[in-house]
Specification:
Blueprint (H helix, E strand, L loop, with lengths): L1 E6 L17 E6 L5 E5 L11 H8 L5 E4 L4 H9 L3 E4 L7 H8 L2
Parallel strand pairs: 1-4, 4-5
Antiparallel strand pairs: 1-2, 2-3
């Protein structure tokens, strides 16, 4: 399974980006191979009304789960419709490495 984690940077030491739609990077973690890939979010400058483009972007990867701090109402509805699970983490000091370790437990 592939999981997208919103990230402030492109390393395992980067912190969780609390905003799904405007995050700088997505860390794509493959639970089967344990590979991690960082992809720049090309939609991070999108206006509020077109944040759904970020949902389309992660769905095209494709991922089955997204980890972030905050999901907007419209984004939540779109992710539910696409059957992509949302995981909310409120500790914004967690690194991508920390989150991957939590996912592996």
């Amino acid at each position: 399974m592939k999981i997208a984690i919103t990230s402030t940077g492109n390393t395992l030491k980067s912190k969780l980006d609390k905003h799904f739609g405007s995050c700088l990077f997505f860390s794509i973690y493959d639970t089967e191979t344990k590979d991690v890939e960082f992809i720049h979010n090309p939609k991070n400058k999108a206006e509020e009304r077109i944040r759904s483009a970020t949902v389309d972007f992660v769905a095209s990867i494709p991922v089955e789960k997204v980890v972030s701090g905050i999901f907007g109402f419209k984004v939540k509805a779109l992710l539910v419709e696409l059957r992509i699970q949302m995981v909310t983490i409120k500790d914004y000091e967690k690194t991508i490495e920390d989150i991957i370790n939590l996912l592996d437990q």
